[in-house]
Design brief:
Elements lengths: L17 E2 H5 L4 H12 L2 E7 L2 E6 L2 H9 L4 E2 L6 H4 L10 H4 L10 H16 L3 H19 L4 E3 L1 H5 L1 H10 L4 H16 L4 H21 L5 H7 L6 H32 L1 H8 L5 H11 L6 E6 L3 E3 L2 E3 L4 E4 L1 H5 L31 H18 L4 E2 L21 E3 L16
Parallel strand pairs: 1-2, 3-9
Antiparallel strand pairs: 2-3, 4-6, 5-11, 6-9, 7-8, 10-11
Protein name: Cytochrome P450
Family: Belongs to the cytochrome P450 family.
């Protein structure tokens, strides 16, 4: 069995591959990725769950190779040999993240481009100024709920709520439905025993919304997807919305959490930010370099026998995109005090045809959440030693279980969104 979440992966004493969830949940994943690189080179064998191994691609160049060569490395999980041969159980907690779905994530080539266009079109139609105003109002309302207390958990009372309620609003869901989606998504991304149940709940809420919008169209993103000519049936419409909300929520939660954590745990970083030497966007990019929202991204599947980073890759092998490890590749990331600030060549959004389509709204929501917290809680500080922070169990995302902070208690008046009803 893998060590429990929070245990360092280098405490793994078995002879088999290191469990990926233990790497992500370790106190210092970068140190573990460096150990793996020293042992394996740029492509290492890891364990996804007991008895199921995969290649973790940690080299920056190798990452560009597998993300750009669709003819050799497919996104379609129906090519996964271990799944086809029954090594991965149909009840596995990995499947909500890794199993094939009729959506843009599981497609290659022309089919991928057909399914990608509704996402690109939907994002292009967003009114960014209105979204920013509504997110700022939401952030202010959340902070107002705890500001007089003088303490808060900035993960569970703030960073996990902001993106989900922002995305739910864009798709025409109310805050109750948004919080139900959030609970289901946390289970889904955990890839553990409750993952499939979380996935079913998540999809059912969105399917009900799709059917309601077909009866009563409104001016929201759900209606945009329902009416898009590239989406041929209800399943494709549903899965397009699933991708937008699931990918957007977990990653933005992690991005907000890590940026705030950096400010609270790295005095030099915080001093440069508060002193005006470092802009908020620079801070956001430094967080992407150090701890990308998806530490590891599933997956690519080899369509032919090949070689990558000196390792023999067999047809049907599963390759995991080690985004955090690739950002730390010594070929691209030097250990300097200011290295990376203002540099956006990181792979936090992946690369190639499947590069994240929602970088603009993700940055907009994250920047607004971070700026609002800095403005309204200027003297916030961590309430526990930094080395006591632990991480939600997941082989993919690295989100703190909690970020307990203290600050001067003060009343923050909640505001009504300026753009509401516009």
């Amino acid at each position: 069995m893998p060590p429990p979440p929070g245990c360092p992966a280098h405490a793994h004493h078995g002879t088999g591959p290191v469990p990926l969830a233990a790497v992500v949940g370790s106190p210092d994943p970068r140190a573990v990725y460096r150990e793996l690189r020293e042992k394996w080179g740029s492509v290492a064998q890891v364990e996804l769950e007991p008895g199921v191994s995969a290649w973790l691609v940690m080299g920056y160049r190798e990452m560009l190779t597998i993300t750009r060569q669709e003819q050799l490395y497919s996104r379609d999980a129906r090519n996964w040999r271990d799944l086809n041969e029954g090594i991965v159980s149909p009840h596995s907690g990995l499947l909500p993240m890794m199993g094939w779905r009729a959506n843009v994530i599981g497609a290659d080539g022309p089919e991928h481009r057909r399914l990608r266009k509704p996402l690109d079109d939907g994002i292009a139609r967003m009114d960014q100024r209105r979204v920013r105003r509504e997110v700022e109002a939401l952030c202010t309302e959340l902070i107002a709920a705890f500001s007089e207390r003088g303490s808060a958990d900035l993960v569970n009372e703030y960073a996990t709520i902001v993106p989900m309620l922002s995305l739910a609003s864009l798709f025409g869901l109310d805050s109750v439905e948004g919080r139900e989606l959030l609970d289901a998504l946390i289970a889904l991304f955990g890839s553990a025993d409750d993952s499939q149940a979380g996935n079913r709940t998540f999809e059912q809420i969105l399917l009900d919304t799709v059917r309601e919008r077909r009866r009563n169209p409104t001016d929201d993103m759900t209606t945009v997807f329902i009416n898009h000519p590239n989406l041929r049936n209800e399943a494709e419409r549903l899965q397009s919305i699933v991708v937008m909300i699931s990918a957007g929520n977990e990653t933005v939660t992690a991005w907000i959490s890590h940026t705030l954590r950096l400010m609270l745990t790295d005095p030099r970083f915080a001093a440069r930010l508060h002193g005006g030497q470092l802009g908020v966007d620079d801070a956001l990019d430094e967080a992407l370099w150090r701890d990308p929202p998806m530490n590891n991204m599933p997956a690519r599947y080899a369509l032919h026998d090949t070689e990558l980073g000196g390792r023999p890759i067999r047809r049907g092998d599963c390759l995991i995109l080690g985004l955090a490890a690739a950002n730390d590749d010594p070929e691209v990331r030097q250990d300097g005090p200011d290295e990376g600030w203002g540099n956006r060549s990181h792979l936090a959004f992946s690369a190639g045809p499947h590069m994240c389509p929602a970088q603009v709204p993700a940055r907009l929501i994250t920047r607004t959440a971070v700026q609002t917290a800095l403005h309204l809680l200027p003297d916030m500080r961590l309430a526990v030693p930094a080395d006591e922070l632990t991480w939600r169990p997941s082989p993919w995302t690295r989100v703190p279980v909690a970020l307990p902070t203290v600050f001067s208690a003060a009343r923050v008046p909640a505001r009504v969104p300026t753009g509401a009803g516009a």
